[in-house]
Amino acid sequence: MAEAPLNSPQKPDAFVMTPERLRRQRIAKFLGEGFLLVVASFVAIVVLFIFYFVAVDAIPFFQQRGFGEFFTSTGWYPADEPGEFGALAIMYGSGMVTIGSALIAVPLGIAAAICLSDVLPFAVRQYAKPVIEMLAAIPSVAYGFFALVIFAPLLQNYGGPLLMWTWWLIAGPFVFLAVIVVSDLVTSGSQSTDTRKTIRWTVTVVFGVIALFFLYYVGRTLNEIQILSGTNALNVSLILSFMALPTIVSVSEDSLQAVGRELREGSYALGATRAETIVKTVLPAASSGILAAVILGIMRAIGETMVVWMASGNSSHIPEPWFNYLDSIRTLTATIAGDMGEADQVTGSARYHVLFAMGLLLLIISFVSNLVSERIVVRQRKVLAGE
Amino acid sequence: MNNSSTMNGSRKAGRTIDIVNRGLKSRYRKEKRFRLYGILSIVASAAFLAFLLTSIVMNGYSAFLQTYIKLDVPIEAGMIDESNPKRSNFQGIIKSAIREYYPDVTERREKRELYSLFSSGAAYQLRNNVLDNPPEAGTTLSLWVLADDDVDMLMKGHMKRDVPESERRLNDRQLRWIEKLENDGRIEKRFNTTFFTSGDSREPELAGIWGAVRGSFYTMLVTLALSFPIGIAAAVYLEEFAPKNLATDFIEVNINNLAAVPSIVFGLLGLAVFLNFFGMPRSTPLVGGIVLMLMTLPTIIIASRAALKAVPPSIREAALGVGSSKLQVVSSHVLPLALPGMLTGTIIGMAQALGETAPLLMIGMVAFIVDVPGGFTDPAAVMPVQIYLWADSPERAFVEKTSAAIMVLLGFLIAMNALAVVMRKKFERRW
Questions:
Q1: Residues B274 and B362 occupy one common structural domain
Q2: How many Cβ pairs within 8 Å bridge chains A and B?
Q3: Of chain A residues 236-255, which have a CB less than 8 A from chain B?
Q4: Residue B43 domain boundaries
Q5: Tally of domains in chain B
Q6: In this structure, are B143 and B115 located in the same domain?
Q7: How many domains does one find in chain A?
Q8: How far away is chain A from the Cα of B196, in angstroms, using its nearest Cα?
Q9: Dihedral, CA atoms, B394, B396, B402, B404, nearest 10 degrees?
Q10: For testing contact with chain A, the best of B263, B264, B274 (most A CBs within 10 A)
Q11: What are the chain B neighbours of A191 within 8 Å (beta carbons)?
Q12: Which of A17, A195, A325, B44 sits 20 to 30 Å CA-CA off A86?
């Protein structure tokens, strides 16, 4: 293609930059880059835009009602005349499901991330990873349907036994581990090998029996619990934890991978087993990235709407007692989704603006935690790069 | 540690290897336990996923079949309005056909119960049939008409026949009528085409997902048309042109911020800005598409930047070396090479948008819409919102409809994600 003008004697200046051409190229460059800059800053502007418009609609609420009621009262009667707009119970509900889902998702997610990045051989990993990613691909409304139609009745009908089995499965191994460790500690002082063995055995057996009774007693108490409604904080927490899992796993895995081979090999060379390498070397090095993963995962749980709206029971009160996960709750996102339909008819009232106030609260929480997690990741990268 | 040192004191052999060997067994045990925890966590996620999917499939597969009843409709002179067949009383014709089949039902209440076994859509079926090929008077049309959702549930075994009458939605008399149909071989389950071809309805047997599929399609078109060019342009700027300064940092931080915004807040934005401020039409694919565009942008930008980063600098340097401008380098060398990666990111972003519900609730897409939307400004439902609406309906028949709709939606999502994976595998280049 380029040969024709090269060989033709009529156009010797095909590759010469005349001032005219130079100018044209500079204009094209200016226009092109300018256009791209405008488009790229559109994204930044959108964020400011969101913030501005949500705030503009949230401020009238605080002007009308002040801050006190919103943050300290639990009375939520927006439809009354005059309404009450105490969002404390709603914020508490959001916090409750968030903590509940974090309690399940964080240990599970970190264990899965370690397993994916360091434990499983590549052949298995290839199949295990899509399973986790699949959890992210399922739409939230499908989780909501599952929570409402399948899991809630299950919890309501077989709640007690389910809780008991979970207790045995989760607490059982830990308690027995504790028994072994404690009896080891208790008997470590004695000198003679033979007597030590017998003492150790008896102590282990005694502790074991006590532990069994403890497990059985708690299990039986759990078994007798009657769950009045399957749409409660426990249900939502469990489903949310599986929704947050992919985020936690993929971000922590990236952060574990970012810890270079040098550290791992150094640890192996000193004779550490794989478990010791991971727990004592890799995890501390990756800890900040894992923290960022946890923050991002928690954000998913706070911001999730459909599952909580469909399956949390939507009653705005602080459960009695405060840690009762079997009670129904209401969250910020669910309130926005649920109340907007009616509130929008009366645009301009406190009832409409209070929902924007909640949106603003969510927005601020998400921005702050995003910035924090980003700062953490950047710092980890710098530390690992040896700066 | 404590143990071994005290024991070394009593014995003479104090070689390091002995100390190591003594601890080895428990260390290996710990190693095994550690691996077990990791594997258990993955097994737990897999088990949850399997439970979720199987329960949805078990609930939903029966919705692909629908109970039909064979009805002989005698057409007599005067029944069909010759001048304007559309105006004929099709409901009446169906009812007289039913009465003919059950001659012993005479009482008013019984008749009403009898008619309720047949879907109200039966008249439309007859209407369509008559309009397509007008029958002559005196002939008998043999028609498979839709059964009511209660009959459907009974035939699918979701309603038990042997429970007390008060706990059933069909009474003993109605069961006897159905038995008569069964004995005559006039009732059977057939593939449920209604589910795939019609819009929403209050009657479960008439409700379909086609309206929602079309709504989703238009919404996705809007989202794609807006987010693909914007996302790619932004990624190209940030990766190829952006100087390292505060403004660029600001843009980058905000892309991540945008990704972190809870989805419901996008709905608030859509409501406050597009509906209340700009006065755009409520519950339309246009507004839904714009809102979802904002949500998919970060995904597309992040994936596109990764794709651009993967193009090695040697390509750029070679192009610059033969005299192309920066813009030419990007447009004719870097972009084509990065395009598969960008498309992959776009598909994944689109899949996210397709499954999103919450923001669309805020812009009025929860409205009950029967008509199949024909354009970007028609009121429409989208698939996930349709699922949400059905999940809230009390009828048992909607549970299987909801599950089936979820299966269809999941099918789309999995297909899109699989396409992304295949594309990544196919076009991935090792430099």
A1: yes
A2: 271
A3: 242, 245
A4: 2-61
A5: 3
A6: yes
A7: 1
A8: 19
A9: -170
A10: B264
A11: 6
A12: A325
**In terms of pLDDT, which residue wins out, A187 or A256?**
A256
User: Looking at residue B9, what is its pLDDT?
Assistant: 46
Nearest to B230 among A33, A42, A245 (CB): A42
B381 in the same domain as B308:
yes
A140 with B417: Cβ contact below 8 A: no
Query: Are residues B53 and B76 part of one domain?
Result: no
Question: Are B155 and B27 members of one domain?
Answer: no
Q: Which of A145, A242, A336 sits opposite B406 (nearest CB)?
A: A145
* Owning domain of residue A312: 65-384
**Residue B214, pLDDT score:** 93
**Per-residue confidence (pLDDT) for residue A31, from 0 to 100:** 87
Average pLDDT over residues B149-168: 85
On average, the pLDDT of chain B sits at 86
Specify if A45 maps to a domain. no
Of A278, A355, A370, the CB nearest to B257: A370
Name B56's bridge partners.
Answer: none
Q: Which of B159, B187, B204 is the last residue of a domain?
A: B204
pLDDT score recorded for residue B277: 85
Do B309 and B365 sit in the same domain of this protein?
Answer: yes
Question: Is residue A12 in some structural domain?
Answer: no
| Residue A38 in domain | no
Query: Among the three residues B19, B41, B61, which one is the final residue of a domain in this structure?
Result: B61
Distance of CA A232 to the CA centre of its chain: 19
Burial of A186 (0-12, 13-18, 19+ CB in 10 A): middle
Q: What is the pLDDT of residues A279-316, one digit of tens each?
A: 898 998 888 889 989 998 999 899 999 999 998 888 88
* pLDDT interval class at A1 (50, 70, 90): very low
Contacts of A42 in chain B (CB under 8 A): 230, 234
Q: How confident is the model at residue B156 (pLDDT cuts 50, 70, 90)?
A: confident
Question: In this predicted structure, what is the pLDDT of residue B2?
Answer: 47
Q: Considering all CA atoms of chain B, what is the largest pairwise distance in Å, rounded to the nearest integer?
A: 117
Which of A106, A280, A306 to probe by mutation at the B interface, max B CB count within 10 Å? A306
From the list A334, A146, A140, the residue with the least C-alpha distance to B399 is A146
Flag whether pLDDT at B296 surpasses 90.
yes
pLDDT score of A119: 85
pLDDT exceeds cutoff 50 at B8: no
Nearest to A40 among B42, B233, B356 (CB): B233
In a domain, A52, yes or no: no
Across the interface, whether the CB atoms of B234 and A42 are under 8 A apart is answered yes
* Chain A 39-58, residues with CB within 8 Å of chain B CB atoms: 39-44, 46-50, 53-54, 56-57
Contact B143, B126 (CB under 8 A): yes
**Whole-angstrom distance, CA of residue A140 vs CA of residue A318:** 25
When scoring A41, A170, A305 by the number of chain B Cβ atoms within 10 A, the one with the most, hence best to mutate, is A305
Cβ contacts of A104-107, under 8 Å, gap ≥ 24: A104/A237, A104/A238, A104/A241, A105/A240, A105/A241, A105/A242, A105/A244, A105/A245, A105/A248, A105/A297, A105/A301, A106/A248, A106/A294, A106/A297, A107/B41
Give the pLDDT band of residue B46 (cuts 50, 70, 90).
Answer: very high
CB B215 within 8 A of CB B380: yes
At B10 the pLDDT is 45
pLDDT at A364 over 90: yes
B115 has a pLDDT exceeding 70: yes
Tell if the pTM clears 0.80, that is, is over it: yes
A9 CB near a chain B CB, below 8 Å? Answer: no
- Please give the residue of chain B at the shortest CA–CA distance from A368: B257
| Contact present, A325 and A237 (Cβ < 8 Å) | yes
Mean pLDDT of B347-370: 88
| B154: Cβ contacts below 8 Å, ≥ 6 apart | B161, B170, B175, B178
For residues A363 and B257, give the distance between their C-alpha atoms in angstroms, rounded to a whole number. Answer: 9
User: Which of B236, B268, B383, B385 to probe the A interface (max A CBs under 10 A)?
Assistant: B268
